[in-house]
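Let us practice reading a record.
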Amino acid sequence: MRLTEQNVKELIIETSMKKAVFVYFYMDAPECEATTVALKNAISDDNEFIALAEANVQDKVSQAIAMQLGLQSVPALIVMQQGRPAAALQGDEIVSKLDETIKEYMPSLAELLLKEDGSVQMIRRAETPKDYFATFDCFDIFDKMNFEANNYIGCICFDKNQIELALKSLKRALKADKNNIKCNEKLVEVYDELGFDELADKHRAMLKKIRAKK
């Protein structure tokens, strides 16, 4: 969306209170063309979590905002969140760091509700370990999977570094077979990866009991 005098407050202040707004300062010049294309391809108008505001510094309102932010050259990208600048990229680094910057402002898998039709819905942003784990209870689709399916998906996701889904699947698998050695071993790895030592130790203790019985 193009930044104008009419929507500047809505985009930079009001919208940024709900999601990150990537304010892109540019001008109609060759040095901005590649960056403009990259941003438009990366952030669609229907993105639920990030908005793109195009600020052509040849327009008075965009020029005034650029001066207030201390920008001296274009292209430049300012990420607005909660009505304030949260990050800034300048020149070539906009394209080179675009993917990682976008990921910072997209919710993680632990913050999304996975629906049966394959769509997702944001639950909330997890700010503490307690909130982080609470979001796992939202994945109702996993309840319908049996032990083999959950255990298989959990191991595959962990190997691909998709920790949130790995943990969810493994926890569901464990409900079906709490004495399964491989599942407990994988949960120890996942909790170690997340830095939750107490939970990792809990499953280590469980493994000792299971092996002692056998």
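A brief commentary: The two ends are 64 Å apart (CA to CA).
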